[in-house]
Specification:
about 240 residues; alpha+beta; Jelly Rolls; 2 domains; five-stranded antiparallel sheet; 13 strands
């Protein structure tokens, strides 16, 4: 699976920005103040029913998401959201003001193979945004739609003089979304979730093998042999 991807389709971001001004939407400061410096704020269009903060995106324990009252007042934004024929969980518009930054962090529970993804659609941006995901700088332009694996370490800094405004949509993977990811070559047909052990250092893999061998059961020995074969380990 790709770490990030710009989709082949785009949206007209201008009507979205216009309706935010017309509706006089208010931006709420993001509650996770340790994650950023400067001003990071936004408003929610869909959120967990039990959310203590409006900008809380939910987690794997969140099972019911509700549209906010503001969502009904933003039909142009709703058209973009409805383009994606799958269940949405959290939907927010997030603003990072000029000179502000979101520190390096990772967001757990946003993995395609676990059934969840997050997409970004820039509504207002500038060339001096530094959006880094897994060490790669993403050049997102207004109206584009982007996927990124936000389980990876990522950060955002607005070095420009214009606020950055993104529509951020979290959604559940269904057949429609899976086919879209296949069409866009984000994943390959038949691709499986990566084995977490792939990222372990060789010495750690060897320790796991030795522990399994010491258990002495038929299952543990077989598993140890499979690991040794897969990673060409010599114990």
């Amino acid at each position: 699976m790709k770490t990030s991807h710009k989709f082949s389709f785009t949206f007209d971001s201008r009507p979205l920005l216009t309706e935010y001004v017309s509706a006089k939407v208010g931006y709420e400061k993001h509650f996770n103040t340790s994650f950023y410096k400067g001003e990071w704020s936004g408003f929610a269009l869909k959120k967990p029913e039990t959310a203590l903060h409006n900008l809380f995106a939910g987690n794997n324990q969140s099972d019911k998401y509700l549209d906010t009252e503001l969502a009904k007042k933003l039909p142009e934004t709703q058209k973009v959201i409805d383009f994606f024929k799958c269940e949405k969980t959290s939907v927010r518009v997030l603003k990072l003001t000029a000179g502000s930054g979101i520190k390096p962090h990772s967001d757990e529970g946003l993995n395609f193979f676990d059934g969840f993804v997050r997409l970004h659609i820039p509504i207002q941006t500038n060339p001096d945004i530094e959006f880094i995901v897994a060490g790669e700088k993403l050049e997102m332009k207004e109206g584009e739609c982007w996927f990124a694996d936000f389980n990876q370490i990522h950060s955002v800094y607005n070095h420009g003089d214009i606020d950055r405004l993104h529509l951020v949509i979290d959604m559940k993977v269904n057949e429609w979304l899976k086919e879209l990811f296949l069409k866009e070559r984000i994943i390959e047909r038949g691709e499986q979730a990566p084995d977490p052990m792939d990222s372990y250092p060789t010495e750690v893999k060897k320790e796991i093998v030795q522990h399994l061998m010491q258990q002495g059961t038929e299952t543990s020995i077989k598993t140890a042999q499979q690991i040794m074969k897969k990673y060409s380990l010599i114990i």
